[in-house]
Amino acid sequence: MRSLSEIDTISKRASRAKGFSWGTSEEIGKCIRLLELFGLSGFKNLNKYLQVYNLNEFKLTKLIEKNNNSDGKIHCPISSGINFLDQIKNLEKHQSIEFNKMAYPLLFLPFLSRSSEALGKKIFVKLDEKQFIFNFNQSIFSNYSKNEIWESANYILITFLPNDNTFDEKEWTEMTKLANETFVEESEELKEKSAGAGLIDND
Amino acid sequence: MQVQLRSPKEIMKLSRLGCFHQSKLSFLRSFLEEFKDWKYSRDLFELNKDGYGKAVYSFSKNNRTYSLVCFANELQDEERSDRVIATKWDAAFALHDGVPTKKDIERLYDNVPKQEVGRLSFKELTLSRANRSVRLFNEVVNSLSNGKQPDKKILSKVGYLYRTTAVYGSGKFGLADRFRIKNRPELKGPFRLEMMLVYLVRQFTFDQINHIAQHKNPKQFVKLDDEIAKGLGIGNSTGLGMAPFIVNHPTLLNNWVQSRENILKKIREIETVEDSKFKIFYNCLVKSISNVENWNTDSEFQKNKIKELLNDINKTINFLDTLDKSQSNLFNIIYKWAETEVCEECLEYLVSMFMEPFDDIVNQFKHEMSSDEDKYFTIPSHRKVIELRDILENHYSELIKLDFNKKENNYNFWFISKNKEEPRLGNRFEVDGSELEQPLAIARDIKKLYERVIVFKNSKTIAEFLIENDDLRHVVRRAFIIEKFPYSEILDNTIGEKLMPIDMLRFKLSFFGAIKFDPRSDKWLRICMFQGAPLPNQLKNFDDKWVYHSLN
């Protein structure tokens, strides 16, 4: 078994060899490590992507907008991912962001996971029929778990989820009531003898 | 009285970092403190009469066990090399997480002696190999087998029976990644497992030499005296492999230096120094002289430094003898005097010595020396270019003055060799390969960044800056790290003509707790670790100033 440290190092160096800057290669190393930590086949997909990187002409999206069209090409997942992460604070104003056609979309995902942490919000992503929820870079929830090379996605929809709870007030009240059963009933004697400050503190 | 922390611009120069010495903060000393109440045992010792075979040593406490698995191999003299390009060694070691099964030992037997070309698993934590100091090893075997203890003078000159040539950890060659173990309380300090490996290897060298001597002449043999064994450590040959580490781990570098600086500040701020505390410092300083006197090297560079150090230690002792010890802020007075009266080597030596009496201060920082680099990896790209410019001007003011169009400032380049994947340093005007330069020329790239930042609109965000300047992303990241971690960067030119790479090695090794730095060129050196340290069966109750009681 290869360690995550080895995966990070090899991914970084291989990316550099393909012409990515050192800083970007460092980002790629960390992201592939993250995918592998979450059990997604980042290394396999990066390997394949780097093999075709200089052969195809990819759309190197720099400024991320609400709708990102690849203009007849196919989005580079690294360039889209890095710029998405860099520009995340500015992107929050859009409720959702769309990309058409992206190559090796799995490689785009760790940047979204890190964006979720940077923004402090969960991010929901739909890539064709596959769905992912990124939870502050702590975990990824998904209906996809195949160990495969995923060459492209036709449509990507990214939504920033509001920081809402998953339960309603009624459920909160019910649980609170139960939790309160761990407390001791208040009496006048307890108020006098066991409280820190006095009953009247007008001094 | 409030004392200011020493400025990173003063401390983080390579020539200063190359003057650092071991201290109470050093990892091998804090390792012994942490593991002193663990149960030590030798679980397996199957060597043939010539000392070849396998052995297992362990430390256990509660439900946790760490086991060193050793393999000693026959090696022809012509095969023995300390260089990283070697493929065979006298002995090879792996530290296993838990108690190894027979199957584990078989698997390790197939892989550990191969080192870099073998494969380890997540059940192994560190990996190393070592070669005998042949002349000394044979001499000790002969003495013991003839019923005599070896000559202490000869032993002290070398200081060890074996020297390691690399110690690997943190995911290398399939070893466990750091994330698997980082939350264990006993490992809350850097390089704990590397220190454990080296420490147990030291015991293996004593057991092996006794075993060989006994089989050579069972009737006359005497066991190596424990006191003599205590005076022996483990040697280490270190090359450039270590240098990039301190550039590639900026927050870790910061936490090491910042801990040291915080301790110095607190000690200088002590208003009334108890007489007993001063005496501890004074006695350690006096006793340490024999360590310096027995610091042997053929390097003229180091010989001069040692001579100056010895001279200045004696000068300091004379000063201390005449000093009124009842003065307030005594250690600040000593420090201020030393700042102008002794060389940098001695000044940093004294800083290390200051710590000896102050367990209460030093212990607060022992657990603050690790770092999670990933936490600070993401660039705060929402911030403005003007903020980046301020950081560069405040923290890198000396570096941005350098002119990298001058040959002497842009002289070297760091690269990784294909055959051993090891870092190397080459003259960019003479050696091929500078197009594959590693990102370790931080000063040059920071200067480049500054030149681009000053012509970029101040109000733009870093995200906008990076769209046009992606080639400098690696140093943008570093700039935002130094803002939070002021000691995270070597504030010097790591590619200049006058660069002494051994300054980088020595700095790191001083934090390990190494002594007797012996530069063999400007690119590699030999050191000694654990010389004078208690043996494993003496750990329950040991003098923590052991480093000043070696064979000398």
Q: Which secondary-structure class do the elements of chain B indicate?
A: alpha+beta
Largest sheet descriptor of chain B: 9 strands, mixed
Q: What characterizes the major β-sheet of chain A?
A: 6 strands, mixed
Classify the beta-strand content of chain B into a percent band: 5-15%
> Counting H and I runs of at least 4 residues, what is the number of helices of chain A?
8
Count of domains of chain A: 1
Side by side, the strands of the main sheet of chain B go 1-2-3-4-5-6-7-11-10
Walk me through what this model shows.
The complex is a heterodimer of chains A (203) and B (552). Chain A has 203 residues and is an alpha/beta fold. Chain A has one domain (4-160). Chain A is 41% helix and 19% strand. Chain A is built from 8 helices and 8 strands; from the N terminus they run αααβββααβαββββαα. The longest helix of chain A is centred in the first third of the chain and has 16 residues, at 22-37. The model of chain A has no long low-confidence stretch (mean pLDDT 93). Chain B has 552 residues and is α+β, with helices and mostly antiparallel strands. Chain B has 20 helices and 11 strands. In chain B, strands 1-2-3-4-5-6-7-11-10 form a 9-stranded mixed sheet, with helices on both faces. A two-stranded antiparallel ribbon of chain B has the order 8-9. In chain B, α5 packs across α7 and α11 (275-293) runs antiparallel to α12 (300-322). The longest helix of chain B has 25 residues, at 192-216. Classes of the chains: A alpha/beta (203), B alpha+beta (552). The A-B interface holds A 1-6, 21-24, 26-27, 30, 62-63, 82-83, 85-90, 114, 117-118 and B 121-122, 170-179, 374, 377-379, 381-382, 439, 461-463, 466-467, 470-477.
